[in-house]
Amino acid sequence: MQDAASRLKDIAEQVLGAPLPVRVRAWDGSEAGPPGTPVLVVRHRRALRRLLWKPGELGLARAWVAGDLDVEGDLYRALDLLAEFIWERGEDAPGLVDSLRDPQVRAAARSLLALAAPFVPPPVPREEMRRHGRLHRHTKGSDRQAVSHHYDVGNDFYALVLGPSMVYSCAYWATPEATLEDAQRDKLELVCRKLGLRPGMRLLDVGCGWGSMAVHAAREHGVRVVGVTLSREQAAYARKRVAEEGLTDRVEIRVQDYRDVRDGPYDAISSIGMAEHVGAERYLEYASDLYRLLAPGGRLLNHQIARRPLRDESAYSVDEFIDAYVFPDGELAPLGTTVSLLERAGFEVRDVEALREHYAHTLRHWVANLEAHWPEGVRLTSPARARIWRLYMAASALAFERNRIGVNQVLAVRTPENGESGLPLRAREWRA
Fold first, then answer.
1. 126 domain residue, yes or no
2. Which residues pair with 405 in a beta bridge?
3. Contact assessment for residue 188 and residue 216, using Cβ atoms and an 8 Å cutoff
4. Which pLDDT belongs to residue 426?
5. d(CA 146, CA 207)
6. Same domain, 308 and 380
7. How confident is the model over 291-312, as a mean pLDDT?
8. What average pLDDT is seen over the chain?
9. Can you give the pTM of this predicted structure?
10. pLDDT tens-place string over residues 146-189
11. How many separate domains does the chain show?
12. On the chain, which terminus has fewer CB atoms closer than 10 Å, C or N?
């Protein structure tokens, strides 16, 4: 009789229609597959039950989060080898686990069912976001819940991953050898220059996080800043940081929904890594609200992750792993859609800068920080939460590198009726 690893390898290759690109180690200690490759460790039969009870990426994610499934060796290489079968088979082709629904691989499913016995439903990891239907997405209440799920996991954990800058968005790398701190400072300075900040101006920082942009803008450019976030933990950290910098007279941090900001007009608005939470059905409202809050001639810097467009946009669906464990209700839109909606809201879009490779490099630094302090990261959250963040960040780095997703800074202006945008003729120099 075959050992468990050989049986798993045969089943996987029957489903894939191709040789398994990684080695497999099963719960009985047996191994099978190509030597010298990362090892996919199936620690328990329960991992198979999770895949059978929830075919698709969510079942795979639950097995990873629970520790039933692991990778020994280079995680990036393992994900790279498996990407073709899980994520990159084209719009019309099923992924690795989804193909179990195909009648042609029912025999493989029966073999997997026999190997997974007893066939009882495994418990859902407690880190998974619980929902009661999807009819009320992107209300103020649901957005507060989603933001809390992602950001209120401990400021100390984020400090470990992000480093002292506490900037949770793409850095701007002058050279690959730059430090993460320097690259994040350079990103904040780039945003300030694009916005043309000058002493005495009012800046609204939407989704202000831990206050990095607000502090930098006030300290380096002499502006008055209002930062809004839905995370109470972020706000508490940001307020403490503002006080330590001696900037309480120039920076106000609020726990507030951007839809509730009523004290415009502002001279400039920064939205860095926040718009991904808005949702397609709310995006025009988001853009219109920011347009309303800007003074004529004011600038918006919208820094946002984008996905590649599909032939059939109606077929778009969110990533199950990220939706359940990382960014609940987060949605990515193609860059063209974002630009069109900003224009519909009244903005004149003046510049778009793509930073895709910069985000891949940033994510690899964050993963390295987590891996270098793994026991501490587990202590600050939980083994499952640390595993979620490691997989999410490593997979995201590869997605940026493979051009599955990108990130763009869109500079838009509330151009006054006389058409004077206030931008220099050579805008790329970013002088006010």
1. no
2. 307
3. yes
4. 75
5. 13
6. yes
7. 96
8. 89
9. 0.90
10. 555 555 568 999 999 999 999 999 999 999 999 999 999 999 99
11. 2
12. N
Q: Are residues 193 and 87 part of one domain?
A: no
Residues 72 and 150 grouped into a single domain: no
Beta bridge partners of 409: 303, 353
| pLDDT grade for 58, boundaries at 50, 70 and 90 | confident
CA atoms of 151 and 166, how far apart (whole Å): 12
Does residue 48 share a domain with residue 149?
no
Same domain? For 148 and 50 the reply is no
pLDDT at res. 69: 96
Residues 220 and 255 in one domain: yes
Range of the domain at 111: 4-116
In a domain, 351, yes or no: yes
* Domain annotation covers residue 123: no
* Residue 292, domain member (yes or no): yes
- 110-131 pLDDT, tens per residue? 788 888 888 788 999 988 887 5
- The answer on 257 and 340 residing in a single domain is yes
Alpha-carbon gap, residue 384 to 405, rounded angstroms: 26
Out of 81, 100, 116, a domain closes at 116
Does residue 425 share a domain with residue 293? yes
CATH of the domain at 358: 3.40.50.150
